[in-house]
Design a protein that fits this description.
mainly alpha
C-alpha cells in the first residue's frame, strides 16, 4: 500500500524523535520549559509571560535563544549519530 509509511520511515522517524528528546534534555530547564510550553503544549503566550514575569518582546528573545541552543544540540547529536 503506497499510502502507508514504510518500516524504514518509521524507524527513521523514531530516531529523529529520540534526537529531539535528547537535544531538549541537554538544555537548561528554563529553556526546556519555554520550548515545551510554546511548541508542544501550545500555551498562550500571554500566560507564559505571566508565569515567567516577562513581556512579550522578551519572551520572543527567550524563545529565539532557546531555539538556537536546541538547534545547536540537535545538530551535534545528528553529527555524532552519523559517525
Amino acid at each position: 500500500d503506497e499510502k502507508r509509511p514504510s518500516a524504514e520511515w518509521g524507524v527513521m522517524a523514531e530516531e529523529q524523535r529520540e534526537r529531539v528528546r535528547e537535544a531538549l534534555a541537554a538544555l537548561p530547564e528554563k529553556e526546556q520549559e519555554i520550548l515545551r510550553w510554546v511548541f508542544f503544549e501550545e500555551r498562550d503566550k500571554d500566560e507564559i509571560c505571566r508565569d515567567l514575569h516577562v513581556d512579550r518582546n522578551y519572551l520572543r528573545v527567550l524563545v529565539h535563544r532557546a531555539k538556537a541552543k536546541f538547534r545547536e544540540r540537535f545538530n551535534e547529536l545528528d553529527e555524532a549519530h552519523a559517525q
